[in-house]
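Q: Here's a chain of 76 amino acids. Please give me its 3D structure as C-alpha coordinates.
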Amino acid sequence: MNKERRIKLAKVVDRIQEIRDTLSEIFDEDTQALEGYPENLQGTERYEKAEEDNETLSDAIDNLEDIYDSLYELLE
Protein backbone atom coordinates (compact mmCIF):
# COMPACT_ATOMS: atom_id res chain seq x y z
CA MET A 1 0.00 0.00 0.00
CA ASN A 2 1.43 3.36 -0.93
CA LYS A 3 1.82 6.32 1.42
CA GLU A 4 -1.26 8.17 0.13
CA ARG A 5 -3.55 5.19 0.70
CA ARG A 6 -2.02 4.59 4.13
CA ILE A 7 -2.83 8.17 5.10
CA LYS A 8 -6.43 7.74 3.91
CA LEU A 9 -6.70 4.46 5.79
CA ALA A 10 -5.29 6.03 8.96
CA LYS A 11 -8.01 8.69 8.78
CA VAL A 12 -10.67 6.01 8.43
CA VAL A 13 -9.23 4.11 11.38
CA ASP A 14 -9.31 7.31 13.46
CA ARG A 15 -12.97 7.90 12.54
CA ILE A 16 -13.87 4.34 13.45
CA GLN A 17 -12.19 4.88 16.83
CA GLU A 18 -14.20 8.07 17.37
CA ILE A 19 -17.45 6.36 16.42
CA ARG A 20 -16.66 3.41 18.66
CA ASP A 21 -15.92 5.74 21.58
CA THR A 22 -19.18 7.64 21.05
CA LEU A 23 -21.19 4.42 20.82
CA SER A 24 -19.51 3.18 24.00
CA GLU A 25 -20.62 6.33 25.81
CA ILE A 26 -24.18 5.85 24.55
CA PHE A 27 -24.05 2.20 25.60
CA ASP A 28 -22.88 3.11 29.10
CA GLU A 29 -25.66 5.68 29.47
CA ASP A 30 -28.22 3.22 28.15
CA THR A 31 -27.00 0.50 30.51
CA GLN A 32 -27.33 2.87 33.46
CA ALA A 33 -30.86 3.73 32.35
CA LEU A 34 -31.74 0.03 32.22
CA GLU A 35 -30.31 -0.51 35.68
CA GLY A 36 -32.45 2.35 36.93
CA TYR A 37 -35.73 0.83 35.75
CA PRO A 38 -38.10 0.17 38.62
CA GLU A 39 -38.68 -3.52 39.31
CA ASN A 40 -42.36 -3.31 38.44
CA LEU A 41 -41.46 -2.19 34.89
CA GLN A 42 -38.68 -4.69 34.24
CA GLY A 43 -40.94 -7.34 32.76
CA THR A 44 -42.73 -4.98 30.41
CA GLU A 45 -42.53 -4.97 26.64
CA ARG A 46 -40.87 -1.55 26.75
CA TYR A 47 -38.12 -2.82 29.06
CA GLU A 48 -37.54 -5.91 26.95
CA LYS A 49 -37.22 -3.72 23.84
CA ALA A 50 -34.75 -1.49 25.68
CA GLU A 51 -32.72 -4.56 26.69
CA GLU A 52 -32.72 -5.83 23.11
CA ASP A 53 -31.61 -2.43 21.82
CA ASN A 54 -28.83 -2.37 24.41
CA GLU A 55 -27.60 -5.80 23.29
CA THR A 56 -27.70 -4.72 19.65
CA LEU A 57 -25.62 -1.66 20.50
CA SER A 58 -23.13 -3.86 22.32
CA ASP A 59 -22.87 -6.14 19.28
CA ALA A 60 -22.31 -3.13 17.01
CA ILE A 61 -19.49 -1.92 19.26
CA ASP A 62 -17.90 -5.38 19.17
CA ASN A 63 -18.14 -5.42 15.37
CA LEU A 64 -16.53 -1.99 15.14
CA GLU A 65 -13.71 -3.17 17.38
CA ASP A 66 -13.09 -6.09 15.03
CA ILE A 67 -13.08 -3.77 12.02
CA TYR A 68 -10.77 -1.33 13.80
CA ASP A 69 -8.34 -4.11 14.74
CA SER A 70 -8.28 -5.49 11.20
CA LEU A 71 -7.66 -2.12 9.59
CA TYR A 72 -5.12 -1.09 12.21
CA GLU A 73 -3.09 -4.19 11.36
CA LEU A 74 -2.82 -2.93 7.80
CA LEU A 75 -1.14 0.21 9.09
CA GLU A 76 1.58 -1.67 10.95
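Q: Can you summarize the key feature?
A: The chain has a mean pLDDT of 95.
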